[in-house]
Design goal:
Layout: H1 2-15, H2 20-25, E1 33-34, E2 37-38, E3 40-41, H3 52-65, H4 75-94, E4 103-106, H5 109-124, E5 130-134, H6 143-152, E6 155-159, H7 169-175, E7 180-186, H8 198-206, E8 212-215, H9 227-230, E9 234-238, E10 249-253, H10 255-260, E11 271-274, E12 279-281, H11 295-311, H12 313-332, E13 337-340, E14 349-354, H13 359-368, E15 371-372, E16 374-376, H14 381-386, E17 392-396, H15 403-420
Parallel strand pairs: 3-15, 5-6, 5-7, 7-8, 8-9
Antiparallel strand pairs: 1-2, 4-10, 9-10, 11-12, 13-14, 14-17, 16-17
The chain binds pyridoxal-5'-phosphate.
Length: 421
C-alpha cells in the first residue's frame, strides 16, 4: 500500500506542470539586463547560475559559523565541522554512494580526475599498460591520463565515435584486454550532448576486471546519478555546474579502491601521525583532503544538492529534454545551421555551426542581444577535429531556461545571417 502510494506521488510529481517562472524567481542573476536586453543565459555547461538559497548558505556560513574544521574543541569549529560533514552526507545520498567516506571533496571534476590518474595511476599502471578514454572527452579527461602514460610508459587508447557523436561500442569491446588498467569516459559530452551508454561500458570493462571512471561534470546537474546502480568505480563532478559554488567538486570512489590508493598531496589533516622518520596517513576521506579545505564551498554545494532535490532531478531531466527537443527543431530549421552532435540520447547541449559565419561572430552578435552562448572548442579539441570544424557555437540549457529564450536565440542567429549575408 505504502509503495503504491509512493509510486502515485512520484508520478504526480513528474506530471505536475514544471513552473519555470517560479524556478526563475529563485535565481537573482536572471533578472538582469545585458546590453539593455533581458539576460538569456544559455551557457550552463560552462557554469550554472546559483539560486538564492545557495548564496544565502554561503553568506550565512561566513556570518555565523566560520571557523576551521576538524581542529578545534570550540563551539564555532564544531559547528563548521558539522556543516562541512553534513554536506558530505547529503552529497553521498545525492549520488547514492554506499559510504560517506567514499565522497572526497576536491576543487572540481578536473582535480578529481587528476587525483585518480596520479594516485591510482602511479600505483597500478606500469610500462606497457593501457588506459582507454573516448574521442569525445573534455581535456580534463584526456591530459591527466596522457601525463600518467608519459610518466609510466603506458599507452593511451581512444574509443572512436561515429558521425552522430555516438561511441562505437563494438570497437570498445574489442579494445579490452588484460593490459588495460582503466577505462575513463564521460557520462555526458560537453561538446556534443551525447549521453553515453555507461552501464554497458561498465559491464564490458568489469567483465575483464577493469575499473571505470566516469566524468560526470555534465551529468550530475541533469540526470539522477546512482553510482551503485551504475557500478562505476570512480565518479567525478563539479559543484559549480550544478547550482553550487566554484572551487568545490567531488570524487566518488569505491572504498576498496580509495583504501588501496596513496595520497597525492601531503599536509595537515591527511595524516594520523607524523615523525621525521615516518608518517602514517589518516583514514578516508581525509587521506585525500590535505590542508584547510573549501569549507564554504562544501556548505554551498550541500545547499545546491538540497535545492536540486527539492526541484527533483527526474522533473529537471524531463523538462530539459523537452527544451532540447524544441531547440533542436527551431535552431536546426534555420537555413545554413548544422547541428554537431545528433546522438539518439542527448542532454542539454546544442552545438552548431552556421554556414560562412565563424562561431565567434555568432557568439558576439548573440551577446549584443543579451544572449550568452559559448563559441570555441569547448575544451574538446579532438571533437572539433573529428567533425572537421575549428569551433562551434554552443547553447547549453538548464531547467531555468524557457522556450521563449530559445526563440530569442533563433532570432539572434537569423540576425547574424542577415548581417553577414
Ligand atoms: C565533461 C567535462 N568534464 C570535465 C570538466 C571540467 O570541469 P571543471 O573545470 O569544473 O573541473 C568539464 C567542464 O566544462 C566538462 O564539461
Amino acid at each position: 500500500m505504502q509503495a503504491a502510494l509512493e509510486e502515485v506521488n512520484a508520478q504526480e510529481k513528474l506530471t505536475t506542470r514544471f513552473d519555470v517562472d517560479r524556478i526563475r524567481g529563485d535565481f537573482p542573476i536572471l533578472k538582469q539586463r545585458v546590453h539593455g536586453r533581458p539576460l538569456v543565459y544559455l551557457d550552463s555547461a560552462a557554469t550554472s547560475q546559483k539560486p538564492q538559497v545557495v548564496i544565502d548558505a554561503i553568506t550565512n556560513y561566513y556570518a555565523t559559523q566560520n571557523a576551521n574544521v576538524h581542529r578545534g574543541v570550540h563551539y564555532l569549529s564544531q559547528l563548521a565541522t558539522r556543516e562541512y560533514e553534513d554536506a558530505r552526507v547529503r552529497i553521498q545520498r545525492f549520488i547514492n554512494a554506499a559510504e560517506t567516506h567514499e565522497i572526497i571533496y576536491t576543487r572540481g571534476a578536473t582535480e578529481s580526475i587528476n587525483l585518480v590518474a596520479q594516485s591510482y595511476g602511479r600505483k597500478f599502471v606500469h610500462e606497457g599498460d593501457e588506459i582507454i578514454i573516448s574521442a569525445m572527452e573534455h581535456h580534463s579527461n584526456i591530459v591527466p591520463w596522457q601525463m600518467l602514460c608519459d610518466g609510466q610508459r603506458a599507452k593511451l587508447r581512444v574509443i572512436p565515435i561515429d558521425d552522430n557523436g555516438e561511441l562505437l561500442i563494438e570497437e570498445f569491446a574489442r579494445m579490452l584486454n588484460r593490459r588495460v588498467k582503466m577505462v575513463a569516459v564521460t557520462h555526458i559530452s560537453n561538446a556534443l550532448g551525447t549521453i553515453n551508454p555507461v552501464k554497458r561500458i561498465i559491464e564490458l570493462a568489469h567483465s575483464q576486471d577493469i575499473p571505470v571512471l566516469l566524468d560526470g561534470a555534465q551529468a550530475a546537474p541533469h540526470l539522477k546519478v546512482d553510482v551503485r546502480d551504475l557500478d562505476c568505480d570512480f565518479y567525478a563532478f563539479s559543484g559549480h555546474k550544478m547550482c553550487g559554488p566554484t572551487g568545490i567538486g567531488v570524487l566518488y570512489g569505491k572504498s576498496h579502491w580509495l583504501e588501496s590508493m596513496p595520497p597525492v598531496m601531503g599536509g595537515g589533516d591527511m595524516i594520523s601521525s607524523v615523525t621525521f622518520e615516518k608518517t602514517t596517513y589518516n583514514t578516508l576521506p581525509y587521506k585525500f583532503e590535505a590542508g584547510t579545505p573549501n569549507i564554504e564551498g562544501a556548505v554551498g554545494l550541500g545547499a545546491a544538492v538540497d535545492y536540486l532535490n527539492g526541484v527533483g532531478l527526474d522533473r529537471i531531466a524531463t523538462y530539459e529534454h523537452e527544451l532540447l527537443d524544441y531547440a533542436t527543431e527551431v535552431i536546426g530549421a534555420i537555413p545554413g545551421v548544422k547541428i554537431i552532435g545528433t546522438a539518439r540520447e542527448k542532454a542539454s547541449v546544442l552545438s552548431f555551426t552556421v554556414e560562412d559565419i565563424h562561431p565567434h561572430d555568432i557568439g558576439t552578435i548573440l551577446d549584443q542581444e543579451g544572449i550568452a552562448v559559448r563559441a570555441g572548442h569547448h575544451c574538446a579539441q579532438p571533437v572539433m577535429k573529428r567533425f572537421d570544424v575549428p569551433a562551434t557555437a554552443r547553447a547549453s540549457l538548464a531547467f531555468y531556461n524557457t522556450k521563449e529564450e530559445i526563440d530569442a536565440m533563433a532570432a539572434g542567429i537569423q540576425k547574424a545571417i542577415e548581417v553577414f549575408a
